[in-house]
Amino acid sequence: MESIRRGNSKFYRAYEMKESLRLILRCTNRFDAESRLKSWLWWAAHSRIEAFKELAKKVRRNMEFILLHHFL
Protein backbone atom coordinates (compact mmCIF):
# COMPACT_ATOMS: atom_id res chain seq x y z
CA MET A 1 0.00 0.00 0.00
CA GLU A 2 2.86 2.36 0.75
CA SER A 3 4.16 2.11 -2.80
CA ILE A 4 0.67 2.81 -4.16
CA ARG A 5 0.34 5.81 -1.86
CA ARG A 6 3.63 7.26 -3.07
CA GLY A 7 3.25 6.27 -6.73
CA ASN A 8 -0.37 7.12 -7.43
CA SER A 9 -1.84 9.46 -4.85
CA LYS A 10 -5.17 9.78 -6.68
CA PHE A 11 -5.65 6.01 -6.68
CA TYR A 12 -4.69 5.84 -3.00
CA ARG A 13 -7.10 8.66 -2.09
CA ALA A 14 -9.88 6.84 -3.92
CA TYR A 15 -9.10 3.70 -1.94
CA GLU A 16 -9.11 5.67 1.33
CA MET A 17 -12.43 7.27 0.46
CA LYS A 18 -13.98 3.93 -0.42
CA GLU A 19 -12.80 2.37 2.83
CA SER A 20 -13.95 5.37 4.84
CA LEU A 21 -17.45 5.14 3.36
CA ARG A 22 -17.53 1.40 4.06
CA LEU A 23 -16.72 2.06 7.73
CA ILE A 24 -19.35 4.78 7.96
CA LEU A 25 -21.98 2.36 6.70
CA ARG A 26 -20.98 -0.08 9.43
CA CYS A 27 -21.75 2.46 12.18
CA THR A 28 -24.39 1.32 14.63
CA ASN A 29 -25.37 4.79 15.82
CA ARG A 30 -27.44 6.86 13.38
CA PHE A 31 -26.20 10.23 14.65
CA ASP A 32 -22.57 9.15 14.54
CA ALA A 33 -23.06 7.82 11.01
CA GLU A 34 -24.78 11.03 9.91
CA SER A 35 -21.99 13.19 11.29
CA ARG A 36 -19.30 11.07 9.67
CA LEU A 37 -21.22 10.91 6.42
CA LYS A 38 -21.48 14.71 6.25
CA SER A 39 -17.70 14.96 6.65
CA TRP A 40 -17.22 12.28 4.01
CA LEU A 41 -19.52 14.13 1.63
CA TRP A 42 -17.41 17.27 1.94
CA TRP A 43 -14.24 15.23 1.36
CA ALA A 44 -15.71 13.49 -1.69
CA ALA A 45 -17.11 16.71 -3.18
CA HIS A 46 -13.67 18.34 -2.95
CA SER A 47 -11.63 15.28 -3.93
CA ARG A 48 -11.00 16.16 -7.60
CA ILE A 49 -12.04 12.58 -8.38
CA GLU A 50 -15.10 12.81 -10.64
CA ALA A 51 -16.56 9.43 -9.66
CA PHE A 52 -16.55 10.39 -5.97
CA LYS A 53 -17.90 13.85 -6.69
CA GLU A 54 -20.84 12.25 -8.52
CA LEU A 55 -21.32 9.70 -5.73
CA ALA A 56 -21.33 12.50 -3.17
CA LYS A 57 -24.12 14.27 -5.06
CA LYS A 58 -26.19 11.10 -5.15
CA VAL A 59 -25.61 10.30 -1.49
CA ARG A 60 -26.41 13.89 -0.47
CA ARG A 61 -29.70 13.76 -2.42
CA ASN A 62 -30.66 10.46 -0.76
CA MET A 63 -29.03 10.82 2.65
CA GLU A 64 -32.25 10.76 4.68
CA PHE A 65 -33.46 7.65 2.85
CA ILE A 66 -30.08 5.94 3.31
CA LEU A 67 -29.92 6.72 7.02
CA LEU A 68 -33.56 5.85 7.63
CA HIS A 69 -33.31 2.45 5.95
CA HIS A 70 -29.88 1.63 7.28
CA PHE A 71 -30.99 2.10 10.87
CA LEU A 72 -34.40 0.44 10.83
UniProtKB/TrEMBL annotation:
Q: Which Pfam families match?
A: DDE_Tnp_ISL3 (PF01610)
- Transposase IS204/IS1001/IS1096/IS1165 DDE domain location is 4-67
Q: What is this protein called?
A: Transposase
Organism field: Bullifex porci
